[in-house]
Amino acid sequence: MDYTDKKERALIIRKGNELFNKGDIILAYKCYTMAKYYAGIEKIADYFFYTKQNAAKGIVLYKQIVQEDSNMGGNERAKKKLDEAALKIVEIIRKWNKEDNSEFNAKEEVTLEQKKKYLLAAAGKHKIKFHTKNKTSAIKDKQTNDNTTK
Question: Rounded to two decimals, what is the model's pTM?
Fold first, then answer.
């Protein structure tokens, strides 16, 4: 649905902000999406990426903003945040490669657990769930599942 009535859109955004502040992230996302309020979607992406340390969900939402938003610089902010996420991923891969190369010198096998340790350290010591579903399904997990990934 496209809300062209500014008053109705403002009410939906206000409701989304209310829901976000109460911790109902999924319903807030639905309000922001309905109103095409990309600053709100960015707020939710930041919540997942920085607060929940769930890079996958944050990246999916930043990509949505880049693809759909061209107003007020939201697109540029989301691009910068995607670049930041890419750098973190590159850092993790480099760390893994360094560990893989060190196994020849130390004659030790680098285990999956050691790689996970570096991944978790780089991601802020929180689990990251990577979803390969469509762009909105990544945020449809119940909020209780998010609370268990702390």
Answer: 0.59
